[in-house]
Amino acid sequence: MLVLDGKIAAAAVKATLLEQTQALKAAGKRMPHLAAILVGNNGASETYVASKVKNCEETGFGSSLYRMEADVEEAVLLAKIAELNQDPNCDGILVQLPLPKHIKESNIIEAIDPAKDVDGFHPVNVGRLVQGLNTFIPATPYGIILMLEHFNIETKGKNAVVIGRSNIVGRPMSILLSSNIAQGNCTVTICHSHTKNLKEICLGADMIVAALGVPNFLTGDMIKPGAVIVDVGITRVEDATAKKGFRIKGDVHYEEACAKASAITPVPGGVGLMTIAGLLKNTMKAYQGL
User: What share of the chain is helix, strand, coil (3-state, %, to 5)?
Assistant: First the structure.
C-alpha cells in the first residue's frame, strides 16, 4: 500500500516555487506577496495561518498577516479588503474562514478582487472552474490534484465518490475529478447527508474523497479492495492520554482503510500540507497575472 505523504508532495511543489522566486530575485524583481486576514482567535485558524506564513518564507514569498478582533464590524473588514485590492504589491488575498456569525461570508468572498482570490472562492473563479477555463482552483482540491499528480495516481475512467458537498472542497473536487485533465476523467458520484445506500456506493468506488468532517466516518467495510482513499477531514478529538489533550483525526478510519486501500493519505501529514501547496501555487499564478 502506498502512503500519499503530503510532506513529500508539498516539498516538491515548494522546491519548484523556490527556484522561481530565486530567479525573480536574481533578476531584481519583487517577490510574490500573500496577504492574510485573521478575524478572532480560533485555535485551528491560528495554527493554519501561522503555517501559511511559514511556508511563504520557505518559498521566498512575502507575506502580511492582518489581525482583527472577533467583534470587528463587517464594514471594517470590507475596507481592509478594498485597500488590499488596490495595493499593487499584494498579489493574493485570503480571509481565513470560518468568520464570526455576525459577518456574512459571501459578502467577504465577493469583495475580494477575483484576480487576487487565491482561495478560489469568488463566484467569478468558481464559474470559470465549472467551464474549464483558466482560474484559481480552491486550494484543498487543487492540492489533492497536485498530490495525485506527484504520486502518478491513475484516475482516467475510474469511479470516484466524493463524500461532502461544500463549496470549499466537495463541489470543486467533483468538478476537477470529472474534468478532462490528467488527474481527472473520472465518473463522479457526490454523496451527502441525504444519500441513500452510501455504503454500497462507496464499495463501488475506485477512489473515495472523504470531506465531511466526521472522525472515522469511512470504515473498512465501506472500501473496495484496491481503492485510493483521500482523507480531507481534520478534527480535534479530546484524548487525555495525548500530550496536547487531543488528537487529530481524519474522516477515514485509517487502520481499517489501510487493510483495503492501494493508496491513502494520512492525517495529519496528508491533504492539509497540500492545501498550503495549492495556495502557494495560486499566489504565484496571481503574481504572474493568472
Answer: 40, 20, 40
